[in-house]
Design goal:
Blueprint: H1 3-6, H2 10-21, H3 27-39, H4 41-49, H5 52-62, H6 67-85
Helix pairs in contact: 2-3, 2-5, 3-6
The chain binds zinc ion.
Zinc ion binds near residues 10, 36 and 42.
Length: about 90
C-alpha cells in the first residue's frame, strides 16, 4: 500500500465525511478519514473554521469505539506516520 492510497486527498476526505453522516462509510474509509485529519494540517485548520469535518470525525469515532477497531486505527496510523516521515 503506497503512501498516496493511505493519505486520501482533501477532496476525498470531505466526501467520506458526507458518507459517514449517512452511515455509508466503510471502516477503512473512516480510518483513512481520521488519519487524514491527523496528518493534514490544512484540514485541521479547516475544521476550526468549518465544523463539518470535525463533527464527522466525532461521529466516526462514536461508531468505532470497540477495542479491535481502535487497534486497527492505531496500527494504520503508526504505519502511515512512518511512511510520511521517511
Ligand atoms: Zn486535507
Amino acid at each position: 500500500m503506497s503512501r498516496i492510497r493511505i493519505f486520501m486527498p482533501c477532496e476525498e476526505a470531505s466526501q467520506v465525511c458526507d458518507k459517514v453522516q449517512y452511515k455509508e462509510a466503510s471502516l477503512w474509509e473512516k480510518i483513512k478519514l481520521n488519519l487524514h485529519v491527523v496528518l493534514c494540517m490544512s484540514c485541521r485548520k479547516h475544521t476550526k473554521v468549518n465544523t463539518k469535518l470535525s463533527e464527522c470525525i466525532k461521529k466516526s469515532n462514536i461508531d468505532c469505539l470497540d477495542p479491535k477497531c481502535k487497534e486497527v486505527m492505531k496500527k494504520t496510523l503508526d504505519k502511515a506516520l512512518k511512511n510520511y516521515q521517511s
